[in-house]
Amino acid sequence: MEGIVVKSTGSWIIVRLPDGTRHECKLKGQFRMRDIKHTNPVAIGDHVHVELMQGDSHGMITDIRPRDNYIIRKATKLSKVSHIIAANLDHAYLVATLAQPRTSNGFIDRFLVTAAAYQIPASIIFNKTDLYDAEVMENLKKLSRIYERAGYHCYQTSALKGDGVPVIRELLNGKVSLFSGHSGAGKSALIKAIDPALNPRIGKLSSVHLKGMHTTTFAEMYELDNHGFIVDTPGIREFGLIDFEKTEIHRCFPEMDKLLPDCNYKNCTHTHEPGCAVKAGIENGSVSVLRYNSYLSILNDS
């Protein structure tokens, strides 16, 4: 029978069957070395074939269906190996915050670039707005304008007060959505505010550096009461990119990609070439300096 992988602890892979039951499963040996580029051959959101053991609730994963999409990052310790965060997603949401701890623009852009590279629509949720003073709110407005102009929807929420939560809940209706971000950005608290019946682990901030302390050890898919699913991921400190060609990076910046036909050169890198429409866009304000600097940073790291 076919099910969906909703959690992987390393020892067991938890598979949800169509009747809503969950079963601890092992991966058949032949799949362990099938794809050596990834640390995990099975990812959250994978559709798999399962054989349940006779007289037991445990099972064996015998096949992995082809993925519609997936999103990856560099493995924590193996810089040349990638880790699949989740597969078969309808949308990816970066839960960011401008207060305690602040999410950097570089991190936001690397997440958006990765989502774009794997054809996953993405948006930004600026959480913890109850902590924003007037100056931070003004900065939020500026950032939101930049990202909205680039083609990304931005939302404002306070998991503590419930502000903006109904809007996000409606967006998740009937969809498989990924929530990712730094530890301490409030992903798990926001999930609980969206559906109080859920019980994701909610952590505290370190009092030393006001950084999030890791609480979500493994990625997990939660079923919502509106027929949607949320994939809650462990807090990510860095979003290292992998397998990116320098000539393709600009295509993951929508506001730059649409200007490429106006450049003098079809293979323009938007760095030194004369007649570059992107550099002209920086001059006239249609391309953000902040986003362009992120582009250069990713280009130099590739």
Strand order of the largest sheet: 10-9-8-11-13-12
What is the H level of CATH, i.e. the homologous superfamily of the largest domain? P-loop containing nucleotide triphosphate hydrolases
Residue share in β-strands: 15-25%
Helix segment count?
Answer: 7
CATH class term of the largest domain: Alpha Beta
Structural class: alpha/beta
Characterise this structure.
- The protein is of the alpha/beta class.
- The chain has 3 domains: 2-64, Beta Barrel (OB fold (Dihydrolipoamide Acetyltransferase, E2P)); 70-232, 3-Layer(aba) Sandwich (Rossmann fold); 246-301, Probable gtpase engc, domain 3 (Ribonucleotide Reductase Protein R1, domain 1), CATH 1.10.40.50.
- It has helices at residues 105-117, 134-150, 165-171, 187-194, 254-257, 277-284, 289-301; strands at residues 2-8, 13-16, 22-27, 47-52, 59-64, 70-74, 82-87, 91-96, 122-126, 154-156, 176-180, 220-223, 229-232.
- The strands form 3 sheets. The chain has a 6-stranded mixed sheet, with helices on both faces. A 5-stranded mixed β-barrel has the order 1-2-3-5-4. The protein has a two-stranded antiparallel ribbon with strand order 6-7.
- The longest helix has 17 residues, at 134-150.
- The protein is globular.
- The termini are far apart.
